[in-house]
Amino acid sequence: MIRTRGLAHAYPGTERRRYPDVDVRQGGTLLVRGRSGSGKSTWLALIAGLRGAAEGDLFVAGLQIGTQRGAEIDAWRARCIGFLPQKLHLSSALNVADNLALSYFAAGRPRDDAAIAQALARVGVAELAARRPHQLSGGQAQRVALARAVLLQPELLLADEPTASLDDEAAASALALLQDSAAACGATLVIATHDPRVLQALPGAAVLDLNQIGLQANVDKRQKL
Amino acid sequence: MKQIAYLARLSWHYLWSRPLAAVLNLLLLTLGLAAITLVLLVAAQLDRAFERNLGGIDLVVGAKGSPLQLILSGVFHIDVPTGNIALHEVQALEQHPLVAQVIPLSLGDSYRGYRIVGTTPGYAAHYGAVLAHGRAWQAPMEAVLGAEAARGMARPGHEGAALLGAAFVGSHGLGGGGHAHGEHPYTVAGVLAPCACVLDRLILTSTESVWQVHEHATADDEEDLAILRQEREVTVALLRYRTPLAAVTLPRHINAGTALQAAAPAIEVTRLLRLLGVGADVLRAFGGVLLAVAALSVFIALWNAVRERRADIAMLRMLGAPPGRVAGLLLCEALWLALLASALGLLLGHGLAEVLGRVLLAQGLLPVSGWLWLPAEAGVPLLAMGVAALAALLPALQAYRTDVADLLSHT
């Protein structure tokens, strides 16, 4: 579940950027569209509790973000947010299973090898548990990263450009797997993308289009000049 | 507890994900710690040896020459004597009211590099030496072997008590290879238990034995022998004062009023230790420099690791790890290095001390062993941990401050 009201954010020394209100129910899907510089990364950072909002209200996975101390928000993120980064960021020092186990370490929970094996099996890469990340193909690595993201049954799954540099077939299967994984743990799925194929593949999803406000900001600036 | 175990495991993986840097840093830290361990061991054992060998000897009297040489030859038996002194002068010293005890030593012969010392029973008693086998000498040409000398002289299968009754022939000179006094063999009467003092490396006999050997070796006829008997000599005399006040007058009295030289071991050894101390300081400084280089190297390696693993670290933070846990991971990596280097450094330091000890022993010098653990060595792991923690401080801080949101921007 995500609900924002009058959300705005400003970097030091820059203009305040306002974001449209968003309402996504628990288990729903949201596409965040925007070119680089459109504020997409900042919006995701706000949702994940990595940055503080300048004004407005923000509810994510049952929590009003912005009133907690650092440690609380870290613990909340470990519990409620699954994240699939664009560059995957699997640690090359560890094998696949140990990479997944990092989630337990980060959350301060005991390692559960059965759950790791199950998560890998669910995305179809159970046999890769002992491999190193550099021994994986791009597709396999993404599946491993997805398994890591859903390992702790998050309430919100954030995927950053999951179809970038994939061909049509691979992009379609990646999206399907993403949806399945989110559905399996009842998570709200947020996909940040500028890929039109994603929009076509998920016709029922809510859309937050940040290109529009980017443009508006540009217009505002011009008027000032 | 489980978290710490996992932290240790994870940092272990991260450490060995860069094997070359890990090995290099390990090597540097190990060498630095080994040098420091070696200095600790050798300095402590030298101090102990000096203290043990000098204990209770207030003054060493011998022929004129270098006072340091007199001490080294007369007390530690590692230098040649300055010459001989007349027996009657030593006997005169014995009557002196300020002197409590005089132990005469006659040097000149050796067997397989072990010095044969003609003396009185008071010499062994002074060091509190006890017999392991046999008995003390009772007649001329009976000898008591020091523990180390006995080990060096024993044939395989004939150690300890089996040596008793064996005969050996001393050779002229202290280094071995001199003229053999073939017509005057010694008989082993006893073997001393190890006393961790200079006696271990000596062969003790009565003063008369040494006289007997040399008088017969140099005298041509009976008349000669009679003259030699009147001019009997000893090499050095070890003195114990009756009162501390003797230190003020007695050395001056001997040096100015007689043909003898008196040297106070306390003064000469202080001078010697000052010379040796420079060597120890150089080695210690060398160890310090190695450690500093190691610290710098660990720092650079960790700093680069943080840069390389910035994404890994940010990902950990994204997964919900608090900054302290991420910084702890880096600190733990440095502590692993410190732990491994401490173990290796201590082993290497002891190994080097043992090798050095064998070399010194082969030259008949002071005994140094690697099989000795000092309480001060507990400081070595602490030092290593301190150095590692210091080196990890900035990188850990860098990791602590990693901005997670960077993961989201696609630059």
Description of the molecule:
The complex is a heterodimer of chains A (225) and B (411). Chain A has 225 residues and is of the alpha/beta class. Chain A contains eight helices and ten strands. In chain A, strands 1, 2, 3, 5 and 6 form a five-stranded antiparallel β-sheet that branches. Chain A has a five-stranded parallel β-sheet with strand order 7-8-9-4-10, sandwiched between helices. In chain A, β5 and β6 form a beta hairpin. The radius of gyration of chain A is 18 Å and the shape is globular. The relative contact order of chain A is 0.19. Chain B is of the alpha+beta class. Chain B is 56% helix and 15% strand. Chain B has 13 helices and 13 strands. In chain B, strands 1, 3, 4, 5, 6, 7, 8, 9, 10, 12 and 13 form an eleven-stranded mixed β-sheet that branches. In chain B, strands 2-11 form a two-stranded antiparallel ribbon. In chain B, a hairpin with a 2-residue loop joins β3 and β4. Chain B is elongated. The interface between A and B is medium-sized, with 39 and 29 residues.
Sheet with the most strands of chain A?
Answer: 5 strands, antiparallel
Helix proportion of residues of chain B, in percent?
55-70%
Question: What ranges of chain B have pLDDT less than 50 throughout 5 or more consecutive residues?
Answer: none
| Helix and strand composition category of chain A | alpha/beta
> Which pair of protein chains has the largest interface, and what are the residue counts?
A-B, 39 and 29 residues
CA(first)-CA(last) distance of chain A:
40 Å
Shape of chain A: globular
Describe the global form of chain B: elongated
Care to count the β-strands of chain A? Answer: 10
Blueprint of the fold:
The complex is a heterodimer of chains A (225) and B (411).
Chain A: E1 2-9, E2 17-18, E3 22-24, E4 29-33, H1 40-47, E5 55-60, E6 63-64, H2 70-80, E7 81-84, H3 96-107, H4 113-122, H5 138-150, E8 156-160, H6 168-184, E9 188-193, H7 196-201, E10 206-209, H8 210-224
Parallel strand pairs in A: 4-9, 4-10, 7-8, 8-9
Antiparallel strand pairs in A: 1-2, 1-3, 1-5, 5-6
Helix pairs in contact in A: 3-5, 4-5, 5-6
Chain B: H1 2-16, H2 19-54, E1 59-63, H3 67-74, E2 85-86, H4 87-95, E3 99-111, E4 114-119, H5 121-126, E5 131-134, E6 142-145, H6 147-153, E7 167-168, E8 171-172, E9 186-192, E10 202-206, H7 207-218, H8 222-230, E11 233-234, E12 236-241, H9 246-257, E13 260-263, H10 265-308, H11 310-318, H12 323-362, H13 379-400
Parallel strand pairs in B: 4-10, 6-9
Antiparallel strand pairs in B: 1-12, 1-13, 2-11, 3-4, 3-8, 3-12, 5-9, 6-10, 7-9
